[in-house]
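[recover] target loaded
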């Protein structure tokens, strides 16, 4: 079983590029790591989002919104649940 996470980004927000680049870099680094204490990342991809009534141009310069997809291992399938600690 996997968990699919999505993160939406807007290109033209001040400082938006910094957050977008950090999220993409984190997805890329985590997909190259293999360690028992790190959630396995199997796949990541960033795609332009379509806006109703507008066509997405072929040029990336015209795209305003992006969606980052991250496919990771589900933790509840890997390790036993630790919810019982919350009740203590």
């Amino acid at each position: 079983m996997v968990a699919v996470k999505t993160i939406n980004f807007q290109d033209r927000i001040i400082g938006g590029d910094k957050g977008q680049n950090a999220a993409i870099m984190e997805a890329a680094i985590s997909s190259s790591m293999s360690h028992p204490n790190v959630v396995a990342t199997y796949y990541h991809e960033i795609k332009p989002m379509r806006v109703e009534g507008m066509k997405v141009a072929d040029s990336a310069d015209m795209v305003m919104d992006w969606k980052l997809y991250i496919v990771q291992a589900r933790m509840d399938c890997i390790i036993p649940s630790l919810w019982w600690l919350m009740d203590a």
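[recover] notes: The chain has one domain: 2-86.
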